[in-house]
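thread from #wetlab-drylab

HS: before we spend reagent money on co-crystallization trials with FE2/S2 (inorganic) cluster, can we at least see a predicted complex? here's what I'd submit
DV: go for it
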Amino acid sequence: MLSVQDNEKLTRVGPGTPMGKLMREFWHPAVRADSIVAGGAPKPFRLLGEDLVAFRNADGSAGFMQRHCPHRCVSLALARNEGDGLRCIFHGWKFNSDGKVVDVPTEPEDRREAFAERVPVTTYPAREAGGIIWIYMGARKEPPNFFNFEFHHPPAASLVRCAIVHGNWLQGFEGQLDSAHLNFLHSSSVPKAPNDAGSMVAHDSAPQFQVIEQPYGFREAALRKMQDGSTYARIREVVLPYWSFIPGNHGEPRLVVVVTPIDDERSAHWYYYMSPFGPVPQWYIDQALRGAGPDHNDFAADRGDIGNTWHQDRAAMADGHFSGLLKNFVYEDFIIEESMGPIMDRSKEFLGSSDAIIVRTRRMLLKALEEHEQGKLPFGLDQKIDYRAIRSLSIRFPEGFDWRDIDPANPPEFNFEKDVAAAQG
Ligand code: FES
Ligand SMILES: [Fe+2]
């Protein structure tokens, strides 16, 4: 449990709040790269409590600008994109992606230039990588480290899509850290063939967690004992403030989940279906998209709400489905988060031993907030970090082996003659 004050500190992200200031040190995924086209319509979005638009100039470069016209607050989502700036459709003022006012046709001609200089326009630096346009919303002249993840480089490839969830970013991120729920919430949606991840996870509902802290966050192993004495380890990487690298078997595609704060009460959940080894295979994409909505910018819009208990199917539950939330694996996560309320009150929770990672992460976040107030950059931004080497892994290994010795990019191979089902028997 947290004090009300600490909960406020961790969850509020608007300008001037402690977490808002810390978050503004980072580059954030803002919009999918294919959602804006050169010279095309500006796309409205909201991030860290600020209303913005994203657009592309005629040369293809991306820009971010405050959503509301500095003159009389008309939405610039309606603006004309003239290829070298946005022109507001109300009175024709024009702004470019460097934050300059380049035309104010409603002012007397001889005063225009001097007048334009006085009009403040907020724009932010943009960068494109991995199918996403990234934004830096901080105050530094030189933005800090960019996350140079492996899925930003060939041969790795990814499909990225986004879901808008009505819940604070931290409950979304904590849901990703909470491995214990795999055995319950997702127990009907993970595969159950012998020796696959589903059956090994199902085998032990109280895994042991071990953590190695890293400058960027931590590496965590959820260790599950199999009956033959071997261990099934899910080694996850967490890049703070909100990146979670979900484990996958060596040689197979996997998932990276990011929860960015839209504002205090809503979050954008980004799903990177990625393969370090080349194009993401179609079977993996089909599996990921099964049952989900078609709009990659908000793929879970049809999940329902409290009014219809998110379409929970009680008949399916009577038939053996654990959660009764049938649409898509990740909808289960979104729905439990929304059910907590817009900002979960952590002073009212009662934690158990399976919540140790969540507790630890909160401590790391609170410590980073404190140090940030004193001028220290958070989570390794002041260090040279090889983000490209960060990779998660699921692996089963024999007794006597230590997961800390495993290089996730180049893991040892073990041959298990008996599968889990046989071991159980
Ligand atoms: S409101 Fe935009 S130019 Fe007047
Ligand atoms: Fe989940």
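DV: Residues 420-425 have pLDDT under 50 and may be disordered.
HS: ok that's useful, forwarding to the group
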